[in-house]
Structures are given as structure tokens and as C-alpha cells.
Known about the structure:
Elements lengths: L1 H51 L11 E5 L4 H12 L3 E6 L2 H13 L3 E6 L5 H14 L5 E4 L14 H29 L2 E6 L12 H22 L7 E8 L10 E3 L10 H14 L3 E4 L2 H9 L4 H11 L1 E3 L4
Parallel strand pairs: 1-2, 1-4, 2-3, 4-5, 5-6, 6-8
Antiparallel strand pairs: 7-9
Helix pairs in contact: 2-3, 2-7, 4-5, 5-6
Organism: Hermetia illucens (Black soldier fly)
Family: Belongs to the short-chain dehydrogenases/reductases (SDR) family.
Subcellular location: Membrane
Amino acid sequence: MENQVRRAQAGFENDVNSMGVRLYNLIILLVDIIVVNIKWILYTIESVYHIFSPPPEVDVRGEIVLITGAAHGIGKELALQYARRGAIVVCWDINEKGNIETCDEIKAQGGKAYHYVCDVTKRQEILDVAEKVKKEVGIVSILVNNAGIMPCHPLLQHTEKEITTMYQINVLAHFWMIQAFLPDMIEKNRGHIVALSSCAGLFGLKNLVPYCGTKFAVRGYMQALQEELRADSRNPNVKFTTIYPYMVDTGLCKRPHARFEHLLKLVKPEEAAASIIEAQRRGIEEASVPRRYYYLEKYGRLFPRKAMVLVTDLLDTGVHSDL
Ligand SMILES: NC(=O)c1ccc[n+]([C@@H]2O[C@H](COP(=O)([O-])OP(=O)(O)OC[C@H]3O[C@@H](n4cnc5c(N)ncnc54)[C@H](O)[C@@H]3O)[C@@H](O)[C@H]2O)c1
């Protein structure tokens, strides 16, 4: 009888305890939800505030900036403008002549630049040249994955080689570059990775099916990498900026067209580079060039695809086949 009473008492205490634990967990959950809501509102207000008053630009004087595809176009302009802002620029390109010209221009302006030939489709070559850079120049603190190609015709007319090479340059090379340089950034607890996506990484466009795939991939891996480092217990101070340029007048877009040419005119490479550097220096995580297209994509996604197709047809901008 006594045992039965004791067992009943113990059962009652267990029930009370487990109710207590459940109540405690419920309170913790409610507090978490309230905190998330408050922070959500604060971050939203902060991001709207930053549209009108962006964070200050950090100084890049003395930073070692490595740019792939620095012999021509946006990469060349980035090299010239980073050097003008006092950075030490490391130019990589498969095109040695153009790369040397970029460095000569920088030196003629009184800047510091180093040139290296590297075919970024080759992982081992990337790793070998990266070692040379570390010995001869130092630890890279800003990496700009810029080199890219853009064959432009219907998917069914793309060759296997075109598609494979495009993925090697526009996506896989970014991974090899990051594997070569990110460990030093983590160790030094400072660094910035900039990746060139494209407006073709925000909107799907005809004649650019594989290219859009590569540029959407850049957006995806940059977000994932940022998440991976956020979960890293060392909490490394490495920043990320993904850039989505509209058509830039470098010759990469061979046959661009736009219904409203004045509204949607090609961006000059100098303007694109200035805008990219500004986004990096302000620590902006994602930016289009010009800035407005990024917001168009963000809000456009709230509406049905059919509605966005109306906008696509109205603007009628893109590239004709280069065949
Ligand atoms: N020009 C545009 O309209 C536009 C628009 C959106 C995004 N982008 C992106 O911006 C980046 C730069 O474009 P751009 O217009 O300056 O191009 P570009 O053709 O003017 O220059 C690209 C540079 O990359 C180099 N390169 C190509 N293959 C290479 C390889 N295997 N190894 C090393 N270097 C290599 C080329 O030699 C060249 O110097 C690309 O990623 C491109 O996709 C360009």
C-alpha cells in the first residue's frame, strides 16, 4: 500500500516536472519568435535606410587585390581604379599582352601592379600561380572573380565544348580561386570575395541559356559560402559581394538590343568598375549595375511569372544570336 502511494507520488512529480519542462520550452520558443520578429523589423528598416544612406566606403590603400580577367573590359577597369585608390593590384589573365598593358598603365599612373598568366580553366595552374603570388606579392585580401565568357545563341546550337568551357571559366574557376585564397583570409581573419554574376543571373534570357545557368550558379554558391562561413565556429571576418551587371560596353555582348535605348543603354566599363568597387568598399552583399535592376528582380518575384513576362515583352531588351 505504502509502495503504491510512493509510486503515485513519484508519477505525479514526474508529470509536474515534464509539464514544467514543456512550459519552459514554450516560453523559450515564444521569446525566440518575439526576438526574431523584432530583429526582422529592425533589419528591414536598416536595409531600407541603407538604400538612401549606404554604409561608408572602407579604405583599400595597401590592400592586395587580385582580379581575374584583368587584360580587358571590366577587369581591366577594376585593376586601374583599384590601383588609383592605392591598392596593390595582381592581374591574372590568359591574355599576357593585354595583362601587361593593364599593369603598364597602372605603373604609368604611379600605381603598383603585378601580372600573371593563368588559364583559370586549369585548377592546378591556378594553385601554382596562387603560390607564386603569395611568395612574390603577399597575402591577397580582396579577390575579384571576374573572368568570364558569353557565347550567345539558342541552347540547341551550343556545342558541348562551348558549354563546358563556359562552366569552367564562369563557375568552376571561382571555386578553385576560392580554395586557393580563402584559407589565408580565414587565418588572417580579414578578406573580401567579389564575384561577377550578371543580370543574366537574375533573369532568364533567350540566347543565353547556359550563360544564365553559370550566372545563377554564382549567385547560389556565393550565398551558400556565406552561410557556410557564418556557421564556422572561428567566425571569420570575410565579406562577400555578388555583382549583377546589366550589359556593359566591353564587346562581350556582341549584338545587344533594347526597345528603350536611352533608358536601358549599355553601361560604360569605367562606370561598371566604379560601381563594383563602391559596392565592395561599402560591404554590400548583392548589387546590380545599375542598382535598380536588383530591386526589380526582388519585387518582380512577388508577382506571377506571367506578370513579369509582360514587363519582359514591354522592355524587349537582351541579346541577338551571335551566329
Ligand atoms: N560585358 C557585359 O555586358 C557583362 C554583363 C554582365 C556580366 N558580365 C561579366 O563580367 C565579367 C567581365 O566581363 P567583360 O565584359 O569585362 O569581358 P571581357 O571579354 O571584356 O574580358 C574578359 C577577360 O577574361 C579573360 N579570360 C577569358 N578566359 C579566360 C581564362 N580561361 N583564363 C583567364 N582569363 C580569361 C579574357 O582574356 C579577358 O581579358 C564576366 O564574368 C562577365 O560574364 C559582363
